[in-house]
Design goal:
With 328 residues, the protein is an alpha/beta fold. Helix content is 39%, strand content 16%. Strands 1, 2, 3, 4, 5, 8, 9, 10, 11 and 12 form a 10-stranded mixed sheet that branches. Bound molecules: ligand PBG and zinc ion.
């Protein structure tokens, strides 16, 4: 037997000793809160799959952002649900679209007090629910790129602080970067959904965002769930094309991808803890089978431990509250 013995339990004896060797810490400055605004909504609407998450009205979201700011959450990720959809998703890039109008209001009211990151995609805006333009039964890549670039530009013109393309078309980061640059918005960062998997975990989101595909699935553009090395190629490509932050999505089932990306790249990594992750914990805790707070902290900690710098999470308000109360 080796002497002296290493006894790990020595450092677990009490709260102070444990805190002293805590390796990973959750901080509010790294959280992004996803929010939804729906055109023509009079008041906020909830969906059964995501208790506590709402489709806000324009006035409602402004009020809610006040409490987000009070909690010191630095950024929101904004999604819009238009009043009317069409084949070309034209409300996505309309000057007076729901996201564009909402961003204008938020920026006018709150200015620098909050970062507004806008999700750039077509699926909430197209009648078929796909993330681009349909030709011959599938999304046409290059035609879609132009519309995505138009969308990003319209967001930035309205005052968006950062754009986050979530469509997974090839070449979109380059196209958007070029579009922003030639219009003088070279200072606006792009957070790219770089490794986004065709996951089962998006269903609750699609209820809230009203973006369920009306036929087929997203497997011809989102990544195959079995692939890890391909994620590195996707991320490398987006970095080459000019992404400032790279994202892995979902987070929980892809912690291996986050950890590998952390080892491989220097860029800031964001992880999107998606709607399915929220729903799994929320509903199970509501039934009393797991402890809500402990589960949320454990989930979020696992993502941070894996190597994510930034965490996009529907639990952001609860986490921020616990951090503020020093009760993490
Ligand atoms: C749209 C988009 C999706 C999510 C973010 N942006 C869903 C999808 O691809 O169908 C998922 C977010 C979540 O599940 O919380 N492209
Ligand atoms: Zn989409």
């Amino acid at each position: 037997m080796r002497y002296p013995e290493y006894r790990p339990r020595r450092m677990r004896k009490n709260e102070r000793l444990r805190a002293l060797i805590q390796e990973t810490e959750l901080s509010v400055q790294h959280l992004i809160y996803p929010m939804f605004v729906k055109e023509m909504n009079e008041k906020r609407v909830s969906v059964p799959s995501m208790p506590g998450i709402y489709q806000f009205s324009m006035e409602g979201i402004l009020k809610e952002i006040e409490s987000v700011i009070d909690l010191s959450i630095p950024a929101i990720l904004l999604f819009g649900i238009p009043a009317k959809k069409d084949e070309m998703g034209s409300e996505a890039y309309a000057e007076k679209g729901i996201v564009q109008e909402t961003v204008r209001r938020i920026k006018k009211l709150f200015g620098e007090d909050i970062l507004v990151i806008t999700d750039v995609c077509m699926c909430e805006y197209t009648s078929h629910g796909h993330c681009g333009i349909i030709r011959d039964g599938d999304v046409e890549n290059d035609e879609t790129l132009n519309l995505l670039a138009e969308t990003a530009l319209s967001h930035v013109k309205a005052g968006s602080d950062m754009v986050a393309p979530s469509d997974m078309m090839d070449g979109r980061i380059k196209k958007i970067r070029q579009m922003l640059d030639i219009n003088g918005y070279y200072h606006i960062p792009i957070m790219s959904y770089a490794a986004k998997y065709a996951s089962s975990m998006f269903s609750p989101f699609r209820d809230v965002a009203e973006s369920t595909p009306q036929f087929g699935d997203r497997k011809s553009y989102q990544m195959d769930i079995s692939n890890q090395r391909e994620a590195l190629r996707e991320i490398a490509l987006d970095i080459e094309e000019g992404a400032d932050i790279i994202m892995v999505k979902p987070a929980l089932f892809y912690l291996d991808v986050i950890a590998l990306a952390r080892q491989t790249f220097d860029h800031p990594i964001a992880a999107y803890s998606v709607s399915g992750e929220y729903a799994m914990i929320k509903h199970t805790a509501e039934k009393g089978y797991i402890d809500y707070k402990r589960a949320v902290i454990e989930l979020t900690m696992s993502i941070k431990r894996a190597g994510a710098d930034i965490i996009i999470t529907y639990f952001a308000k609860d986490l921020a509250r616990w951090i503020k109360e020093r009760s993490l």
